[in-house]
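User: structure tokens for this one?
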Amino acid sequence: MSKIELEQFVKVQGQARKDYSTDVAINNDVDEDDKPFQRLSMWVTDPVSKEDIRFEWNKTDSAAALTKEDNKCSIDSDDVIYYQKNWEVETYKNFLNDSTLVPPDPELDDYNIRNNMAVPKNPNTYDEVYVNKQLVRTDYNIGLWQAQPMIDEVEKVFGKDRDWKQNRFNIIGTYTAHEDAPLRPPYTNEKTYSWYNVFIEMPDETLAEYNVPKVGYTYNGWHAIKYNVVSGKKQLKVVIQDDEFTSNYQKHPDTFIPRPPVPYYANKSHFFAKIFNEDGTEADEYDVFFVTTLDIMKEFCAEHGHPFPIPEERENDFIWIYGIVYDKNTLEVKQVKGYVRYPTDGNEWL
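Assistant:
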């Protein structure tokens, strides 16, 4: 880490980002009370358009970021990287939300109304899940024709175990193994179907059914039942918000969730998942999920020796989240996943 002494930014017509000696500078400005202040000014890259943009921080954020000494302004070089990447991931998260989310329907989306949550504008979607550039799973909305054969397979062994279509946004899918992208543990065969029940409070009776202890976690508004039609066994996947209980080991050692390194990610996009057997025992693998940009994820994978999950021909498609499967004891990374969402009606997202 080093200090960067900042100079006044002077925009030169026709000059691109590469023509400037540094990405970061200050701009002298006045606030609404005509009091002068120095505004942090920085080059950033729009993660969608790939356009270089000059972004200027507001007065409060500029004051927090800048160090003033002897009438000079400076900033830590590591902070510059953090602010640039943070702007990029938040811009990308806003793009995802603006592209696909709309206000909930008062007659259909009670959970979303109560929790002030948007819903997907198009329920007729499917997700392609990639590992090491291989398509390992496709998750289909429960109302699509591709979902019904999977429901039929589950019902042959488990009967009508759940109200599969109790929410119009529920999904179902199953994994496919590849030589260079094997099944994610703890799955043992390609006949394990994952049914996701979404936009619902985590039911106490479901937690009790799988003997999940109550330890103080805040669960996200969806969970999954894993149906292994070969063994006849079921598993529950719970999704846990990242908060003080999961991240503050000093205060909450019993609920702390260890995790491997992750890249810069968008605010409130970071969460965990655990899989429970019917006797309450946990699988050895946890998931950690997050929203970040293509370039940041590529850089992270290269730095840590992980295969980037998305194939080149899908890199410009709608990548909405990444996940890492890891051993909860050793933190060894087992898989890096990328999820790409598609509408079935051919309409543009935007």
